Amino acid sequence: MKKNIVQCLILISAVAVLLTAVLSAVGFYNVYEEQVQKQLRTQAQVVRDSLEFTDDPLGYLEATKKAAGDTRFTLIDQNGKVLFDSSADAAGMENHEGRAEVIKARESGFGEATRQSETLGQKTYYAAVRCEDGSVLRAAVALQSVSAVFVNNLPMTLGIVLLMVLVSIPLSRLITRRLLAPIMDAAQQISLEGEENIPTRPIYEEMEPFLNKIRAQKAQIAADFHRIQQEQGTVAMIISGMREGLILIDGDKNILSCNEGAIHLLQAHITTNYIGHSVMGLCRDPEFMGAVNQAVHDQKASETVLEVGGLYLRVYVSPAEGVPGAMILIVDASAHIRAEQQRKDFSANVSHELKTPLTSISGFAEMIESGMAQQQDVAGFAGRIRLEASRLQYLIDDIMRLSEIEDGSNPGEWENVPLMDVAKETVETLSIEAQENGVAISCGGEPLTVDANRHMMEELMTNLLSNAVKYNRPGGTAHINVEKRGEMAAIMVSDTGIGIPPEHQSRVFERFYRVDKSRSKQTGGTGLGLSIVRHIAEYHKGSVSLQSQEDVGTEITVLLPIHQKTVQDQ
Questions:
Q1: In the beta sheet, which residues pair with residue 463?
Q2: E strand spans, 486-570
Q3: Scanning 162, 247, 251, 466, which has its CA 20 to 30 A from the CA of 240?
């Protein structure tokens, strides 16, 4: 701004000097022309008066030729013939009777005119006077043009312009500093914090409304900035605390914002800074990028499910409103999807498990009803029907029991349960079954008491020890051991049975899962025993683990908190 003002002042000074020079030249020219005309008229009258006192007018004019200088004298007789001309040969000149100044001189005694001289070839002023004998004496002088006068004065004019420019440079800077000083002071005052407490310096009166407006806008901007900072802090706190992933991208699919939830769910490197880089750095899945492209380019929202590192992620991609880009929300839907899959598997497994005994019952009943069965076979068929009905009853009971444990619809009372007492009762209950299978069962450990549902603890140990007996070999052993591990009570059931192959160990706690389906049917298993064990352990805030070696044996460990609040107290 300061530089522009200085340049403007210097330019104004130069233009002013040039304009003054031009106007002065025009004014000087008018004065010069008027002076020349007045002088020429006087010369014409003086020479005419002198001719009246001489007997040889032509000789007199010839004698004054050198003294006349630049003035040209011409003597014209009564008929317009040129008798004498001081600048040209009179004999070769045309008749001058029709010249304007000659006509006026004959009429009124004096005539003047200004025109381009054909003889001299330049602009000429003519002054003509009438003599006593009727002839006309004309004086003429060539006039310089305005441009010629200006050109003659150009060196002096340029010198004055240069001088004015040199003088105007420091003066312009000084004037500019003085003009801008109050404005700069006011700007500095406004830029300081708490300017309302600073004494106001002198300022141009015309600028006071402008400065007041700036102060008001600054205060408003400060308030808005503070509010935006608070809102940003709140949003950042919410986003950073979200378990869900949130990603914002621009129209080029570069990341504008990304919370830790997104990095964790997509299992990307937590130490990498993804801001400003392509979203492909977080996830290169084709379905993910297809949803992103659809939102950015086609402005269409979409939803997809990704499987990343064992997690099922539901990804919602929505186009941004008003600006190019998109918002990506990532939700861990593993539990929901697995539950849905388990529900489908459960329905399929229940249907399959119910179908076998029902088919048998229906088949035997149909044979008895149609008379196809012999009388001696009816009792055997009835026994098979009763056996399949019993299996069906066991299956329904286990399913209902598992449902009760899962939803807590029938939690029962919690109490201090002595685990060693429950273990001894379980060994006693299953002793007959163990003898039939040729398996020796026992229990041991230390007396521990836990806050739990006693019936569930009995069911847990019964299922574990029953499996240890069923899937054992003649002459084998099964043992329940109770011990303390830190703040947890450990229930370990080990056997010397057939073991579980490694590929099946991760799934034995699933519903209806059987390692050896033929043996399970022979032993009357429903495939729900270990699933019930797992749910009972989780219901009591515990966990279950398994160690097994094929043809060596299996050990299942259940860990339960010793001290915890009961369901009724929660």
A1: none
A2: 488-495, 543-549, 553-561
A3: 251
The residue from 309, 327, 345 where one domain ends is 327
Within 10 angstroms of residue 6's Cβ, the number of other Cβ atoms is: 20
Q: What is the rounded average pLDDT of the residues 360-378?
A: 77
Helices marked H in 82-145 — which ranges?
100-108
pTM: 0.42
Same-domain status, 141 and 21: yes
Residues 439 and 554 occupy one common structural domain? yes
- pLDDT over 50 (residue 567): no
Residue 368 maps to which CATH number? 1.10.287.130
Phi, psi of 165 (to 5 degrees): -65, -45
Q: How far apart are CA 330 and CA 263, in angstroms?
A: 10
The answer to whether residues 380 and 504 belong to one domain is: no
C-alpha 23 chain-centroid distance: 63
Q: Look up tokens 């001058």; give the residue.
A: 96
Of 411 and 42, more confident: 42
Of 293, 327, 361, which marks where a domain is finished? 327
**Measuring CA to CA, which residue among 148, 132, 140, 155 is closest to residue 86?**
140
Report the domain count for the chain.
5
DSSP string over 496-519:
-SS---HHHHTTTTSTT--SSHHH
* Token representation of residue 116: 């381009």
pLDDT of residue 72: 86
Q: Is residue 567 part of a domain?
A: no
Say if residue 388 is in the same domain as residue 442.
no
Range of the domain at 21: 2-148
Between CA 306 and CA 284 the distance in angstroms is 11
Q: Are 128 and 101 in contact (CB under 8 A)?
A: yes
